[in-house]
Specification:
Structural class: alpha/beta
Strand content: 15-25%
Strand order of the largest sheet: 4-5-8-6-7
Radius of gyration: 19 Å
CATH architecture of the largest domain: 2-Layer Sandwich
Largest sheet: 5 strands, mixed
Shape: elongated
Number of helices: 9
CATH class of the largest domain: Alpha Beta
């Protein structure tokens, strides 16, 4: 399980241990979310093998669990090692790579997670919200009425269970989601907005909803963003 930088502007050596490169250099078979971004990452990592000599198969949101995944792990069952690479950050977390990992466990194949940046954990680390109890909720409903209900439910859980509630949105919908949070959630609810994590333009700030209403939102339009309420 090979992490890659969250931000394209991050230098490889700033976010990944040198030991990861030694593992990558030993592999010639990769199961990836996106071939183009995986090739770009491996090129930036200056791996020893020629990129064109490597074999890639795509595992993404369009992959149907079953025969396609079984075909991906067949070379591993036969003795070959493989690297799993997400489009950004760590594979297998908020990422379709979990499908191939589940199949590997069923086959008794050893799964080795390498150290690297997770936007979810980095945002939580820097939030000041409860890091002892938290939940990642993925994407909330797109339609405003359903999304409002989901936000109120998460806010209640944050208050009653003192559990930090983490969620994300497609970058082009960030602003609408943030605006609805400020409308739906109570004035004392704390909201963390973590944008472009690990990039030079990184923004991570936690304020009460009342303060966000007064100050206004940061520029998060079309920028990868993590939201946490607590």
């Amino acid at each position: 399980m090979i992490p890659c930088p969250i931000s394209d502007s991050s230098a490889i050596e700033d976010v990944l241990p040198q030991g990861n490169k030694r593992v990558i250099d030993s592999l010639d078979y990769f199961i990836v979310e996106n071939v183009r971004s995986a090739r770009r990452f491996l090129s930036k990592a200056k791996i020893e093998r020629r990129i064109d000599d490597l074999e890639f198969v795509e595992l993404n949101e369009h992959t149907i669990a079953g025969q396609a995944v079984e075909a991906m792990i067949k070379p591993i069952v036969e003795g070959r090692s493989a690297g799993v690479i997400s489009e950004a950050g760590v594979p297998g977390v908020a990422d379709p790579g979990a499908l191939v990992v589940e199949a590997a466990h069923r086959k008794g194949i050893r799964v080795v997670p390498l150290v690297g940046p997770s936007s979810i954990l980095l945002a939580l680390m820097a939030s000041g919200l409860n890091g002892q109890s938290f939940a990642f909720n993925g994407y909330l409903p797109v339609k405003p009425p359903e999304r409002a209900k989901a936000l109120k439910a998460l806010e209640r859980k944050a208050v009653v269970e003192h559990q930090s509630q983490i969620f994300i949105e497609a970058p082009y919908r960030n602003v609408k989601l943030a605006e609805q949070i400020l409308t739906v959630c109570g004035a004392e609810c704390r909201l963390t907005i973590a944008c472009d994590i690990t990039s030079p333009d990184e923004v991570i700030q936690t304020l009460r909803v009342a303060e966000w209403r007064r100050r206004g939102l940061p520029d998060i339009a079309k920028r990868p963003t993590i939201f946490i309420i607590g």
